[in-house]
Amino acid sequence: MRCIYFLLISLTLACPVHAQLGFGPEIGIGMSSMHFAPPLYPIDYTAASVSPIVSGKVGGLIDLPLNRHFYLQAGISLSREGAVRSFSYYKNDSFNESVHQTLNINYFQLPVNLIFKTGMQGKGRFVFGLGATASYIVGGRNKLQDHQVFRDTLYATSTDTRVQIGYTLSGFDIGVNVIAGYELPTGLFFHAYYTDGVNDVGINSEIDKNRMWGISAGYLFGKGRNINKDDDDLIDKSTE
After folding, report:
1. How many angstroms separate the CA atoms of 123 and 184, rounded?
2. pTM for this one?
């Protein structure tokens, strides 16, 4: 997976700088969740459930054409991800525990996607894409409500702490992106996106894999974004 990501970056750097480069902001809103399995202590868990939370991202991207239809899009963004998790352990009536956790995780992200656009530049175009996103934790909150019964005594605690790399979750994550949307002749675009984390960011025996989906909107500035013909640099002049 990492090899694919770095290959996409290499292709981006290798593209001709004279090509018709678009660039601009992007903002998105959606939902995020996790594939989650609790840690195997103090005993095997008896139940676990996950609910999504509202997520989003804000950042910018560049749009670099390889030819009339294929483009490389790379960007930088900040995103909010996470999930609400509930899980419990049970050994006997004298020892059981239930935990309710809300994770809000802030990530710094570097997405790279290979995009296919229908039609011609300067006209409305459908877009479809695949790629990868590398992410690193830059903050967040970990809210825990813990209820434990030990020898017929109830212990209840509630904490609200910062997400800590190496303690709450591993810092680095990488996910696979799927994108579909529409780009207007002016450069305004709308995307539906899904990112599936392929890296287990859980600590010790806990399993955590991020999932995020939503919609985004942005605008591409740059030479010729609103013309009704392809850029001359992308036309084979040998045919003239």
Report:
1. 7
2. 0.81
> For residue 9, what are its two tokens?
């970056």
Asked if 218 and 189 touch (Cβ cutoff 8 Å), the reply is yes
* Residues in a beta bridge with 177: 131, 195
The length of the chain is 240
224 CB contacts (<8 Å, ≥6 apart)?
A: 20, 121, 122, 231
**Cα–Cα dist 44/153, whole Å:** 21
* β-strand pairing of 172-183 with 153-162: unpaired
- Model pLDDT for residues 46-80, shown as the tens digit of each residue: 888 999 999 999 999 999 999 989 999 999 999 99
What is the rounded distance in angstroms from the CA atom of residue 223 to the CA atom of residue 232? Answer: 11
* 57/26 Cα distance (integer angstroms): 8
